[in-house]
Write a structure and sequence with these properties.
Layout (H helix, E strand, L loop, with lengths): L4 E6 L2 H9 L8 E4 L10 E2 L1 H4 L9 H7 L4 E4 L2 H16 L4 E6 L2 E5 L7 H18 L6 E6 L2 H8 L7 E3 L22 H9 L5 H6 L2 H8 L2 H10 L14 E6 L7 H22 L1 E12 L4 E11 L2 H13 L8 E13 L12 H17 L28 H5 L1
Parallel strand pairs: 2-4, 7-8
Antiparallel strand pairs: 1-6, 1-7, 2-3, 5-6, 9-12, 10-11, 10-12
Helix pairs in contact: 4-5, 9-10, 11-12
Length: 406
């Protein structure tokens, strides 16, 4: 069985970029936070910080208690996106990039003699050296090599930081037995509980389970795919259908009021509307949620005729907000989601459709913001929050040009 994939996983990515850009941070415990307040949490931690038990999701107040020398820096997402593109170019100069899975992960295809172990390992070392020379010494990576994408990604997680692990057919399945179930892609907390209901508690038990059992656990074809992936087989995975377009934002202390929360929601709706149009979708519903300090939570949603018009989304937001009960707490986090998505070409226009003029308006707004930058023109309801909710990076999603200007 040939080695078909080389998987690159950048270690402590956001923190590593900060250490590359700021030499004074190198070798020191660093965490990256969405904003400079102790009430938020770390979205990345350097390996120096991880030695103190600090990790992604650790509260900043707790992190400071764990490490007195901790340095907290505010996230600079545009820089992380820029470095991401530079890293893709560096890797691609050595080996074709098959797919970018997240801001800090990419998979590469091996062909011909590259599929031999010695050549694959030499290529992995070349990738690391090219990254050091073209992007920076702080951008360390762990590389996994395997017969399929699943096992190459698994291998990249088996030795960190700066690791290099090869999984070949003769290594299977024994090399996987030391892993925990949740170390495997596709096994999250819920799936782990389902596996345990079928008396599968270890990776060894998972590897020895038959195809029929795994199909029952996963409730369908995904179980058979897991069976094949664990054995090094190449598995076709159909593309996923986009189901929502949304944004959320942790409010900085000065915006933790009801009025400010609504204005930030207004801003988030405008951003989501611009993204929705760029993807060629319409939405049939809007959901809104607010997380309050010390526990209270409010959420509501409504459906409507399929549209991609921002004014209609803002009308729905106002209607939902008008029905929100008064809550005796300060809002901490807000979010919106456009759902019931359908591609433009599958939407049947209403006989009473009067959207043509609004369509032209929204198109003009999108073009102006794309050409001249974010907030060149916007709907006034989000005026006070126009600088709130800047571009954020989810690890599984790299913001495109539209998102960076919305």
């Amino acid at each position: 069985m040939a080695l078909r994939f080389l998987f690159v996983d950048f270690n402590a990515y956001f923190a590593s970029v900060e250490q590359q850009m700021r030499p004074e941070l190198r070798g020191k415990p660093v965490v990256v936070a969405p904003m400079m307040t102790d009430s938020t949490c770390a979205i990345a931690a350097s390996y120096e910080a991880k030695r103190f038990g600090i990790k992604t999701g650790t509260g900043i107040r707790e992190a400071k208690a764990l490490c007195r020398e901790l340095i907290v820096v505010e996230a600079r997402h545009h820089e992380y996106i820029d470095y991401h593109h530079r890293l893709v170019e560096a890797v691609e100069s050595c080996v074709p990039v098959h797919s970018v899975l997240s801001i800090d992960e990419m998979a590469c295809t091996l062909t011909g003699s590259q599929q031999q172990r010695e050549k694959a390992v030499a290529l992995a070392k070349q990738v690391k050296e090219t990254i050091y020379k073209r992007v920076g010494m702080e951008l360390r990576s762990s590389i996994g090599i395997g017969p399929n994408l699943f096992l190459s990604k698994t291998a990249s997680d088996m030795q960190k930081p700066n690791g290099l692990v090869v999984i070949e057919e003769q290594d299977l399945p024994d090399c996987l037995y030391r892993l925990e179930l949740e170390d495997l892609t596709g096994v999250g907390p819920r799936m782990k509980r389902r596996l345990e209901r079928y008396d599968i508690h270890t990776v060894q038990q998972l590897c020895t389970a038959n195809k029929t059992l795994l199909r029952n656990v996963w409730g369908g074809i995904e179980g058979e795919r897991m069976y094949a992936k664990l054995r090094g087989e190449e598995v076709y995975t159909p593309p996923t259908q986009r189901s929502t377009v949304g944004h959320s934002h942790v409010l900085p202390p000065k915006l933790r009021t009801e009025d400010s929360a609504f204005e930030v929601l207004n801003r988030l709706v405008q951003k989501a509307g611009m993204r929705l149009r760029s993807y060629g979708y319409r939405a049939g519903g809007l959901g809104v949620h607010v997380q309050y300090m010390n526990g209270p939570y409010w959420s509501e949603a409504m459906t409507f005729d399929y549209t991609h018009e921002t004014p209609r989304f803002l009308q729905a937001l106002a209607m939902l907000w008008s029905h929100k009960p008064r809550i005796a707490a300060r809002p901490l986090r807000v979010g919106i989601a456009l759902f019931e998505l359908k591609k433009e070409e599958y939407c049947t226009p209403s006989l009473f459709d009067v959207e043509k003029k609004p369509l032209a308006l929204n198109g003009a707004i999108d073009k102006l913001n794309k050409r001249f930058g974010k907030n060149t023109i916007y709907f006034s309801g989000g005026h006070e929050a126009r600088d709130a909710a800047p571009v954020r990076i989810a690890f599984t999603h790299i913001p495109d040009e539209i998102e960076q200007t919305a």
